[in-house]
Design brief:
single chain, 258 residues
């Protein structure tokens, strides 16, 4: 095992996989041996073999919550959300105070189109980790997408309070305010987000949309120009730039933008 760790520290993927295979050969009934090999396969991005070794470890130690979590995490990475959900549910059944497993389970439930259960699971994770800005952000995004704008606003505000320099949290706050029709608040949130991540073209685009809805065509045109400059092929940005220029009476510019 120490040699395997040395290979891993040196970045020798083939070396540490071979060493951990030897460990499994020598101790086939040791769940830790299978765990080490599974982790090595994950580092090597061989998810199919990693999944097989995690399953072997679980067969030998079935009531270990971490093993079910790691298997669920790997299954999700491999695109198998159905089985990932089963493993993550088992992880939280075995260990109720497991916020990482709850959060990942909620993510899987979102992907499985179970928004109500996902929201409840995010809230269970937040009971254990109330100061986790990312969890509040993920819940805010889910609530916004399912039409619960007041709940989304509370979660987005909490995410921004906990991580005031996080551009993603500020952009989500802007998205929620846009959905609520509070366009000035949305503009403020988007501008704050751009202050921390000025090259974020999605936030720039959303800011342009907010300016358009408040009748600020000139500022909207400036925002859409920045987006088009950074991503010329974005047709929605081109269309909105043309629309803003028409409102400004710049028909030649609108024709070029479109």
């Amino acid at each position: 095992l120490n040699l395997g760790e040395s290979y891993q520290a040196a970045g020798d993927v083939h070396g540490f996989i071979q060493e951990y295979r030897e460990e499994v050969r020598l101790r086939p009934e040791d769940p830790d041996a299978h765990l080490h090999l599974a982790n090595a396969y994950r580092v090597a991005a061989d998810l199919e073999k990693a999944i097989g070794e995690y399953r072997m470890a679980i067969n030998l130690r079935p009531r270990n919550a971490e093993l079910h979590f790691l298997l669920g995490q790997t299954l999700r990475a491999d695109g198998n959300t159905k089985d990932a959900r089963v493993e993550l549910e088992q992880a939280v059944k075995l260990r109720e105070d497991y916020p990482e497993a709850l959060a990942l389970l909620a993510d899987v439930l979102v992907e499985e189109k179970s928004p109500d259960l996902a929201a409840a699971t995010y809230r269970d994770a937040l009971k254990l980790r109330p100061d986790d800005a990312l969890l509040h952000l993920r819940l805010a995004s889910l609530l916004r997408e399912t039409g619960n704008l007041e709940g989304a606003l509370a979660e987005a505000r909490e995410a921004a309070r906990l991580a005031p320099r996080n551009a993603d949290a500020l952009r989500e706050l802007g998205n929620v305010q846009m959905g609520r029709g509070d366009l000035k608040a949305a503009e403020e949130a988007y501008q704050a987000a751009l202050g921390f991540r000025p090259d974020d073209i999605q936030t720039q685009f959303n800011l342009g949309l907010a300016f358009m809805q408040t009748g600020e065509a000139r500022r909207a045109a400036e925002a859409f120009r920045e987006v088009v400059k950074k991503r010329p092929q974005w047709s929605d940005a081109q269309t909105n730039l043309a629309s803003a220029l028409v409102q400004l009476g710049d028909f030649d510019g609108a024709a070029t933008a479109a």
